[in-house]
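Please check our next protein.
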Amino acid sequence: NGDNMQGGTCSMNTWPNGDWESSGEISLTDVAGENDVVLLFELYEDPAGSSSARVFIDNINVYGVTVDNVDAVLATTNLATYYVVDDVVSTTVDVVNDGDSDMTVDVTLVINDGTSDVVNETITDVAVTIGATETVSFTGWTAVTGNYTYTASVSDPGGDTNLDNNEITGGFEVFDIDPCVYTLPYFEDFETVDTVPSDACWSTAGTEFTGVAGYAAWDIYFGMNRSVFADFWQGAPDDIYMLTTPTFDFSNEGGGTLTFDWQSYGSSHYSGDYFKVKLSTDGGVNYSTVWFVNGDNMQGGTCSSNTWPDGDWETSGEIDLPGVAGVANVKILFEMYEDPAGYSSGRVFIDNINVTGAEVSVDAEVSATNIATSYLVDDVISPTVDVVNNGEAEMTVDVTLVLNDGSSNVVDETVSSVVVASGATETITFTDWNAVEGIYTYTASVSDPGGDVNLSNNELSGTFDVDPNGVHNIGNNLVNIYPNPSEGLFKIDGSSNLSFIVVDVTGQIIILGNLAADTTVELNKPGIYIFRFSNGNAEKVIVK
């Protein structure tokens, strides 16, 4: 209307020889399926004015949209860029009906290892209503190391007007070890990074950016020293910025810490702005905040312009990472938010991310054996060795027992791959051995589980004797018990400052006493008994 009716130009009112305006494409609503559509061109002269121009019309073009348009679209797949060997790849494909009527299609997935198809499956007769999306699931495939290409395609339902969107292709790699799981220490200064995210291991998932077109929520500053930044400068209120690290393996760590540098350019940050660091110990399912600044506290460091972080940097300080000890799937999330009630104008830069683990204490100890100081000939000795884990993580060790008669090893046995939890004691049982007369040494030892901080307690040694008639000199000839075996009466010669107890094979105490000159002990019930003396020695006797 009005001046807007002065479209185009011409040299005189009788000859439209100048340029023309185009109406552009005018959508004709509600005409689909109608057979009595009329168009009216209507012009009106203002009664308060006196217009003097002619209005010319030409090249009227009326056309209809094809009825029963057919368009099957293969929209997306859930295939990732990489997998780890033995992962079960359960592929899904989304098929969209962009046509004007319901359709039935076949959907095919082909995965090729460069030589042959490892997957070639078709799901037939998939019904998709107008405007709908159907997710089609294929049989799970167990990943094998290698490089793969894939093709997902949807058949022509008949008369498809755009066959260019019926197929998606791509590729992925299967690794022996997850390439996105990092051992420690880990350091990232972004000096070799060109984009955010830099690879499949980093992620900006969860970011909601409604800022200026042509700008990204996260980007890399390219300069003498590169860094990553969140673009608050071009963002908008209520935007949220998320940058998630790769996975860190703390399986062999006793704890962990994080440090990083940061700074912000901008006149101010509103009170609702925040910058949080969050920690996940379950692979990114759940997060908890371990570091936090907000509002004016986000104005960290100084720089001369919003594109050049050339001033001083703030440091996060050492941030403790609670609950990471022994955990294999730790992730760290850098999260920022713009106050919906404000309008922040700064960029927030991050650099020199450093994740470190705390050393795990490792200490395997042989704490005890059940080997006595003396035995009788033909006694069956069933040796046991107690191994204690004094470290901070589960350990796997080998335990060895050696019995030597002075000239050779009569027992040399190793029990392998004994698992001992942190703080626990495991009792290892060795093969029975029939006692033979002699004087013996024994050594019980536990292997170094790796990085053992105290190897001096990995071994326990001692001596014992096997006597043919049961008469022993105990403790450097301090005590003699005889006769042995007997019909119940035993004489004990020894130091008068020793005390003793007598127990039966069940451990029940039968007699307590102190040695004196010509001490006699009477045991009336036939069986086997143990004399234990206060000097630590013991002797087995038999009542016939």
Observations:
- Residues 470-477 have pLDDT under 50 and may be disordered.
